Amino acid sequence: MDSTAQAAAVPAPVALTLQARDGLALAAEHLPGAGPGLLLAHGFGQTRQAWRSTQQRLAEAGRASLAWDVRGHGQSARNPVASRYAGEQFVDDVAVAARALGPAPILVGASMGGLTGLMAQARDRAFSALVLVDITPRWEAAGVERILGFMTAHPDGFESYEHAAEQIAAYLPHRREKKSPAQLAHLLVRRADGRLGWHWDPRLLSEFIPDTDGLQGTIEDACRALDVPVLLVSGGRSDLVTDHTVEHFLELAPHARHVRLPQATHMVAGDDNSAFTDTLLSFLHDLPAPTAAHGDPR
């Protein structure tokens, strides 16, 4: 079967709504296949669409997967005003999404998705393997400041999709093409004043982000306790994960495998999706054979 015919044989993602422990509705998409299924957890400020190309290739390889919008992001609900965003809520949500995939899922977590996945593993032993995408228990403060600087740089939003594309291109100058309106549709929402704003809840910046530094000790303990296969995929041009932070992680989890993709920044799956997904599939191939296939999470 040629690649075109194979891609055509992959069904479209099935939209799901997961219910968080506190009743919040979480938007998700599932592609069927054999298990253990892969839970794709995006980073802060992203949506499940960040995994679309990887999810397609996983389906072509016959692997089940589920990607979801983290609370306060994309099409998932935002916390009520009286409910402050807290790390434990995100860990609970990871556990809910993991259960939706069936027994022994595998986490693929980028940045925030990897950190919350590590905590879910320590608390619930939720996964049979973990793939951490450019995230380690310690991270470089300068990289975080650069990311947050961009996220807070446009409080008045954007006048058009073209305006947003220009600003994103300036932030990611290594990307060759500007994002199209179709690509930006899941990242921006039309505000009451007619301008386009980011899809995520601004409260996350003041409520969740300040608490993350305090989680580093908990995340280090989670790494020490890891007893399942682990892959760390880092970006060679990342300013968040460096040789120093990788070395520290491998001291905590000496059995982990590390692959560096030289052309990628912190946005590994978006910068070099082909190389990233090749690395992921190779890791999956080397895992022990699954004991059972997993069905539809619905």
Question: Which helices and strands, and how do they pair?
Answer:
Layout: H1 3-9, E1 14-19, E2 25-31, E3 34-41, H2 52-60, E4 63-68, H3 87-100, E5 106-110, H4 112-124, E6 129-133, H5 141-151, H6 161-171, H7 181-184, E7 188-190, E8 196-198, H8 203-207, H9 209-212, H10 216-224, E9 230-235, H11 243-252, E10 257-261, H12 268-271, H13 273-286
Helix pairs in contact: 2-13, 3-4, 4-10
Question: Overview of this structure, please?
Answer:
The structure is a single chain. With 298 residues, the protein is α/β, with parallel strands linked by helices. The chain has helices at 3-9, 52-60, 87-100, 112-124, 141-151, 161-171, 181-184, 203-207, 209-212, 216-224, 243-252, 268-271, 273-286, and strands at 14-19, 25-31, 34-41, 63-68, 106-110, 129-133, 188-190, 196-198, 230-235, 257-261. The strands form two sheets. The chain has an eight-stranded mixed sheet, with helices on both faces. Strands 7-8 form a two-stranded antiparallel sheet. Helix 2 crosses helix 13, helix 3 packs across helix 4 (112-124) and helix 4 crosses helix 10. The model is unreliable at 1-7 and 291-296 (pLDDT under 50).
